[in-house]
Amino acid sequence: MDCFVGVDVGTTNVKALALLPSDLNTILAHASASVDTINPEPGQAEQDVTAIWNALVTVMADVNRQLVRAGHTASHVAFSTAMHSLLAMDNAGKPMSHAILWSDNRAEEQANALRTSQKALGDAIYQQTGTPIHPMIPLCKLAWLQQHDPRLLRRAARFGSIKEYLWHRLTGVFEIDFSMATATGLFDPDKQQWSPQAIAFAGVRTDQLSAFVPTTQQRPLQINDDTAQLGFSANVTLVIGASDGCLANLGAGGIKPGVTTLTIGTSGAIRQTVKEPLRDPHGRLFCYWLDKDHYVVGGPTNNGGNVLEWVEQLMQKKTQAVLDEAETIAPGADGLLFLPYLQGERAPLWNAAARGAYLNIDFQHTQAHFVRAALEGVLFNLLSINQLLTRQIGPSRVIHANGGFAQSRLWVQMLADMAGVPVRLNTSNESGSMGGILLICKALGLAKSLDEAADRVSFGDTIQPDPTRSRAYQQVFRNWEKARTQLLND
């Protein structure tokens, strides 16, 4: 029987999920493979795209073996991919460099210029593109290359993302979906063209960039020795898909007004979906294209599950033991506050130089207090982004939660108590892959709209806020915001 596959190419793993279009609640096949990050210099983060291709081959071959054993065939495959990577390629699509990742801060000087000495240009580019100015975006990475490696900038026939490299290897064409394009800082979605101002600042030529296509773009698999390793049938259809953030919203069922999606993996994000493009007056929120009727607005944080990993390493304890300690402490950690900026910060600060801190430490605070404050600090930062969303769009009536943190009942309950609204857990944590499968349903006309497709998402538990803890957290949050403002202004 024909089934659909959603592939999620993330920073740490390549994952795939196979479902029947008639039953999106039963997993037919699932596989995952890890991908290493290279740190050639402090503040730099790269990946070998050949290794990513090999991970994709491993995952898809595994999924296809599982499907064959169960009597199924993958008829359509869609792709969710991490944003903001940049790769130099030759005319044949072969890599001329490692891919520079979203977490790479080498372009801090170029981003700062667009926020200070060239602020008028930076503001104009944000208003055109909807992409906040930050070292993560390809706009700034290309400007860095213009200064530090101009020979590569001239020699490369193509610049693109990891997704564009994989898509070319799968299909033989250079294309970028509108969703990924709106995350580059180079694309004007209103005019559906590369922004002349952004292109000039980046120092790149438009012929070095891919053709942009809708997120439902379909292509046949290019049959060769490379792609034969994947295990697909010859008539499989590939759907280009969208960025991981946009498809995470779709896959979490976060399409309707008042529904906020919060994801915490290694990093994190909080998002809502709107019908029209939106720009924050101060350039703090992204606005990325999902389809012509849906735009995902929100903010990402560098500091999510990695903060918990940091605490685990310091305590030399496993995750559950750390969480058990945090549960022994009351909300607010007896006045101890934590600013979670261990790796700089994107939203709401957009400051790669921001650093973390514990505040109000005294003799009563134990190891468990430090853990509790760390978990609270991560959520407070995300909810400070949500305040910006509330001012622009309106309040949340429910939060859909996914990512690794959703496996901790304590952390999810803290979120419900802080936000003061119910938190619904998705049945599947693979929201990116699920979003890709729902996009296939829309592309094939099995759903009339993405709203209808999102209605097929299933949920597990709904966590209700505790009124007493919610009131306590309101004051703690005010204290946290005041402390952050004071520290960052010093």
The fraction of residues in strands falls at 15-25%
User: How confident is the prediction overall: mean pLDDT?
Assistant: 96
Profile the largest sheet: 7 strands, mixed
Write down how many β-strands occur, each being a DSSP E stretch of 2 or more residues. Answer: 23
Order of strands, widest sheet? 17-18-16-15-21-22-23
How many helices? The count is 17
Cα Rg = 22 Å
Q: Report low-confidence residues grouped into runs of 5 or more.
A: none
Based on secondary structure, the structural category is: alpha+beta
* End-to-end C-alpha gap: 63 Å
- Assign a percent range to the helix content: 25-40%
- Oligomeric grouping of the chains: single chain
Q: What is the global morphology?
A: globular
Account of the protein in words:
The strands form 7 sheets. Strands 17-18-16-15-21-22-23 form a 7-stranded mixed sheet, with helices on both faces. Strands 3-2-1-5-14-13 form a 6-stranded mixed sheet, with helices on both faces. It has 490 residues and is of the alpha+beta class. A hairpin with a 3-residue loop joins strand 1 (2-9) and strand 2. It is built from 17 helices and 23 strands.
Give a quick summary of the entry.
Helices cover 38% and strands 23% of the residues.
Top keywords for this entry?
17 helices, alpha+beta, seven-stranded mixed sheet, 490 residues
Topology:
Blueprint: E1 2-9, E2 13-20, E3 23-34, E4 46-47, H1 49-69, E5 73-81, E6 87-89, E7 99-100, H2 108-115, H3 119-129, H4 138-148, H5 150-155, E8 158-160, H6 162-171, E9 175-177, H7 178-181, E10 187-188, E11 193-194, H8 196-202, E12 211-213, E13 218-220, H9 225-228, E14 237-243, H10 244-251, E15 259-264, E16 268-274, E17 286-291, E18 294-301, H11 305-315, H12 319-327, E19 337-339, E20 357-359, H13 367-392, E21 398-402, H14 409-419, E22 423-426, H15 431-443, H16 450-454, E23 459-463, H17 467-489
Parallel strand pairs: 1-5, 5-14, 9-12, 15-21, 21-22
Antiparallel strand pairs: 1-2, 2-3, 4-7, 6-8, 10-11, 13-14, 15-16, 16-18, 17-18, 19-20, 22-23
Helix pairs in contact: 2-4, 4-8, 10-15, 11-13, 12-13, 13-14, 14-17
